[in-house]
Design brief:
single chain; 113 residues; mainly beta; Gamma-B Crystallin, domain 1; four-stranded antiparallel β-sheet; 1 helix; 8 strands; 14% helix; globular
Length: 113
């Protein structure tokens, strides 16, 4: 019977992660030997400003946005900013896959309804 608590925990984890919106930032580099950086973010709530990790230093060339959330109201848009604290130039995207032209250095974002 020790399997049952493990199974319940696994199912709860699967449900909670499957019900979250997600954003994937993909960096851009032309420098030889430099790896392309990728950053993933996800959550259930929205409206708060989130600063990207300081280790994500490349300009973003692609964005993938999935706004579907089960059991929660779906957010509608992703707003990304060129400065910390959701300041600077703002770009607004809806759900989908985007090539960012020209590649832009994003530093913070906000998921909104």
């Amino acid at each position: 019977m020790k399997l049952l608590p493990t199974l319940v925990t696994a199912l709860a984890f699967t449900t909670s992660t499957a019900s979250a919106w997600s954003v994937k930032f993909t960096g851009f580099t032309l420098k030889e030997g430099e790896e392309t950086q990728r950053l993933k973010a996800r959550g259930r709530g929205y409206g708060e400003c989130v600063n990207l990790k300081d280790s994500y230093t490349q300009k973003t060339s692609f964005l993938v946005i999935n706004t579907e959330t089960r059991f929660h109201k779906d957010p509608k848009k992703l707003k990304v900013y060129t400065k910390r604290g959701c300041k600077g130039k703002k770009y607004t995207y809806e759900e989908g896959f985007y090539g960012v032209h020209p590649p832009t250095r994003f530093v913070s974002y906000r998921v909104t309804d």
